[in-house]
Amino acid sequence: MAYITKRGNSYSVRYTYEDEHGKSCDKWESFPTKEEATNRKKQIEHELAAGTFLIPSSVTVAEFLMDWLPNQCSKHKWAPKTYESNLSTIQNLIIPYIGSMEMQKLKPYHMENLYTTLSKTPCGSYIEGKKQNLTEKQKQRFLSGTTIHEVHRLLGTAFQYAVEWGILVKSPVPVDSPKKSTQERTIWTVEEMRAALDSMEDPILHLAVHLTLVGALREGEIVGLTPEDLDFDAADGIGTFRINKSMQRVRKEALNQVDDGCIIKVFPDKLERSTTSLILKSTKTASSCRTIFMTSALKEELKKWLNQLAADERKDPTRYHDSGMLFRLPNGLAVEPVLIRKKFLKWQDAHPEFPRIVFHGLRHSSATYQLMISGGDVKAVQGTTGHATADMLVNTYAHIQQSSRVELGRKFEEGFYAKSEKTSPQAVPAEGEPTISMTALLELLKNADPEVKAQLRLALLT
């Protein structure tokens, strides 16, 4: 039962409840008017009778999230990078702003205020939860809509668990998520890809870029290759290489939190008291595990590279540390993803005539080129890139094929304004011109985002 008592100029509702440990607790809630106190009394009695009473809790957002994170990690068997990413989001983008607030006092407008604050927050304002001193230039670069969307996604998932755990009655996270920011990716044309590859003299960089352009690989997948992944006799002598591993450098804290089922190998530390570890892990998803067909040029380069590895070991076998990886330094140690990026940046500095792109842009360049030359065969390209779904591939790359859209506009003009007695130039594709099947177009339309759907419907009409 609940009781109302007058205390000075306010009215208090007193009631007894049992906490999560079954202990009897007394609680007082004060209100400025008797009407408000009476309404609250009725609400408490109804919830106690119905078994829906929310046990009062003073747990803060920071306390809840830091308790929820390892539980969620263990339940869903996160990879180390997934744990690191979510921990960083909590430490740097949530706790500094709403971490001290009590969970049960959160309202949807608090979430909206958080999103607004983050939209005006410079990148890197907090690192590992510590406030950073930024330069004036750094203060001009703000968090993207995609980053804020990730904050929304994480809080939405976490607070649903708070409801299940009896901390909240309803999640305060708004239904509508912040809009993701769309940024056009810089990619290379096939001519630029070919010319850039020809100009690379560093053997490690040349092989890494060659593999990426042929197989649209990620950095970790490149250096995660082993000699055993190569099969020069497969596919009637064409040759293949298998992608089923990835190399990452992760914080040891994350490594201790995650399930080690996905970890194949932890490499020895190069420095004492290192807070990070270099690991070899299985690929992120089943679709990421794939077989790539070699080109004759890549096949020859791989054979020469294996001969070089053998020669390096013969030079000084006592000091050679065979890491077992395909990409090795002359002393046999594994090549890390960061070294590939550094070598690529150094090459770009020496070749300003090429459009500036990040190393991952080579993957985008390769995937886009393969989509174009295959006539939009999404399934075939998806088998090479390892995207989880066909629509993910479409939504990622369809909007950056500017040359295809220009050609589409030209064809539309020719077909739309042509006289009716003439055969439409769309009826028969020009010899050697990439075509796309109706099945492929329907596959694209099924799950593509609205902007991409509009472009593809125009392609169908023309």
Give an overview of the whole structure:
The chain is of the alpha+beta class and 462 residues long. Helix content is 47%, strand content 12%. The protein contains 17 helices and eleven strands. It has helices at 34-50, 61-76, 80-98, 108-119, 145-164, 190-199, 203-215, 219-223, 252-257, 296-315, 337-350, 360-373, 378-385, 390-397, 402-416, 438-447, 450-461, and strands at 2-7, 10-18, 24-31, 126-127, 130-131, 230-231, 240-243, 245-251, 263-266, 276-282, 290-293. A three-stranded antiparallel sheet has the order 1-2-3, covered by helices on one side. Strands 6-7-11 form a three-stranded antiparallel sheet. The chain is elongated. Site-specific tyrosine recombinase, which acts by catalyzing the cutting and rejoining of the recombining DNA molecules. This is Site-specific integrase. Keywords: DNA integration, DNA recombination, DNA-binding.
Write the topology of this structure.
Layout: E1 2-7, E2 10-18, E3 24-31, H1 34-50, H2 61-76, H3 80-98, H4 108-119, E4 126-127, E5 130-131, H5 145-164, H6 190-199, H7 203-215, H8 219-223, E6 230-231, E7 240-243, E8 245-251, H9 252-257, E9 263-266, E10 276-282, E11 290-293, H10 296-315, H11 337-350, H12 360-373, H13 378-385, H14 390-397, H15 402-416, H16 438-447, H17 450-461
Antiparallel strand pairs: 1-2, 2-3, 4-5, 6-7, 7-11, 8-10, 9-10
